[in-house]
Amino acid sequence: MITLDECVSPHVVMAQRDHVRLDWRMPYSALERVRSVAWTCFCRATVYELYEGGGQAFIRRTVQLEAQPDEVHETSTWPIYNARATWTALLSGRAR
Description:
By secondary structure, this protein is of the alpha+beta class. The chain has one helix spanning 80-91, and strands spanning 35-39, 46-53, 56-63, 71-74, 78-79.
């Protein structure tokens, strides 16, 4: 088991009371070639990843379940600048 001092990726802080609610959807192939450019620590049950490709980006949320397959959802795509701003808001608890 990983301890918090061994974590190298960021953790998402608790959502603020007035946070923006993101629209999470089932994964779909909106972009053909994407790569994960940022992610949260895998020690938590819910992991977030920022994907970019072709000038567009989206965020993927994976809920890791013990006895079942993982639940994966994604946001719609945005221009990279907007997605990075949303990523920062997610990490700081201003979006969820």
